[in-house]
Write a structure and sequence with these properties.
CATH architecture: Up-down Bundle
Distance between the termini: 45 Å
Structural class: mainly alpha
CATH topology: Four Helix Bundle (Hemerythrin (Met), subunit A)
Strand content: under 5%
CATH class: Mainly Alpha
Number of strands: 2
Order of helices and strands: HHHHEEH
Number of helices: 5
Helix content: 55-70%
CATH superfamily: dinb family like domain
Strand order of the largest sheet: 1-2
Number of domains: 1
Mean pLDDT: 96
Oligomer: single chain
Length: 165
């Protein structure tokens, strides 16, 4: 991939991520505080665990891209300090915006350079950005499917939901 191509694709993907981020915030903010331990299956994360995962890993993936190296993911236990959806929303809005700005500031050469993902794959940084966006949307979809079972309401995602009409 040529550096200018990588930069052009990054401009599109960061704008897309910023738009999706607003939807992700609405889903996080819709999580009810009184049922954060909800878990649809023993293999699944709890509601709070999934909120933490989205909040911390979106920021982490974007910062790994900006740094050009993938480091171990953040600790999403109680030690992370995210104890409520409001904590997560504030952290997500600030951290992901800053990380997106770091990715936007990368040069075309940096965006075309390959990043090793734990030895499993080597991808240009811009391709990692696409993966980060898909990761975010995937886990947001999981969390949105928890909402009604947790006693919450599903916000509009790509249009109104049964709860927003």
């Amino acid at each position: 991939m040529q550096p200018q191509e990588a930069k052009t694709i990054t401009e599109f993907l960061t704008a897309d991520f910023a738009a999706e981020m607003q939807t992700t915030l609405r889903v996080i903010e819709a999580v009810p505080n009184d049922n954060l331990g909800y878990q649809p299956d023993p293999k699944s994360k709890t509601g709070l665990g999934l909120v933490r995962h989205i909040t911390l890993e979106d920021e982490w993936l974007l910062n790994c891209i900006a740094d050009g190296v993938v480091v171990p993911p953040p600790d999403d236990s109680d030690a992370c300090g995210i104890m409520t959806p409001a904590d997560a929303s504030a952290r997500y809005a600030d951290g992901v915006n800053k990380a997106l700005d770091r990715v936007r500031a990368m040069s075309g050469e940096q965006l075309a350079a390959e990043i090793d993902f734990f030895g499993m794959m080597q991808l240009p940084a811009v391709s990692m950005l696409g993966m980060a966006l898909k990761h975010s949307v995937h886990h947001r979809g999981q969390l949105s499917s928890y909402l009604r079972a947790m006693g919450g309401k599903v916000p509009g995602i790509y249009g109104p939901s049964a709860d927003t009409q």
